[in-house]
Amino acid sequence: MASGSLDFYYEFASPYSYLAACRIAALAELADVRVHWKPFLLGPIFAAQGYASSPFNVYPLKGAHMWRDLDRLAAAQRLPPITKPATFPANGLLAARVAMHLNDACRPSFTRALFSAEFAQGRDISDRETIRQVLAGLGHFWDEVIADAESEVNKARLRAQTEEAQARGVFGAPTFFTTDGELFWGNDRLEMALEHARSLARKG
Question: What DSSP line would sit under 90-108, residue for residue?
Fold first, then answer.
């Protein structure tokens, strides 16, 4: 049976992307679905929607509920309690550039480690030192990785991936796409997305 395929668009400022990143690999393996990890930036997409900040900041009641919801979900996933970043949403530009630069084999581990630093340890992901320490902990030559991530070529790749997400209809994170173009939004739709991807592979 051919394996399925799923595009996983995530934003480093998104706590729901963090939850999805922590569980997608194991679930995808069980479903025999290959995941394509696609970092992107929500800021330009929110701006096009008329938001100057996250909707969770624009609507305080919604934001307050989100943090309580995240506490419950983190406990259910047996993750450490969620730590709200000092600045929310955090500036994930450098993080996204580094993830974009890393190859398919290295991107998931970096993504999970940086999300953990942000939402489990309360570290500032806009701080170059945080990025450096996460890369070093994974065995990367961090100075070379960061230099390459900040090259004009890689910056253009991240812009193109963000534009691709917007063109496909992404309006929040995480978002998943199956090969037939179906969009599934939110951590709570991950299982549904994987099941659809698996069903497409069976038909194929």
Answer: ---HHHHHHHHHS-TTTHH
Q: State yes or no: pLDDT of 122 exceeds 70.
A: yes
Question: Each residue of 67-81: pLDDT tens digit?
Answer: 999 999 999 999 999
Q: How many CB atoms lie within 10 A of CB 21?
A: 24
Dig out the tokens for 99 from the structure: 């993830």
pLDDT in tens, 6-15: 999 999 999 9
Question: How far is Cα 121 from Cα 163, in angstroms, rounded to an integer?
Answer: 31
pLDDT tens per residue across span 134-159:
999 999 999 999 999 999 999 999 99
Tell me which residue has tokens 């194991």.
26
The Cα 90–Cα 106 span in angstroms is 23
What is the Cα–Cα distance from 13 to 43, expressed in whole angstroms?
10
Give the pair of three-digit tokens for residue 198. 């698996």
Beta strands in the chain (DSSP E): 4-10, 33-39, 175-178, 183-185
Burial (Cβ within 10 Å: 0-12, 13-18, ≥19) of residue 78: exposed
Distance between CA atoms of residues 126 and 167, nearest Å:
27
CA-based nearest residue to 4, from 176, 178, 174, 177: 178
Q: Is the peptide bond before 89 cis (omega within 30 degrees of 0)?
A: yes
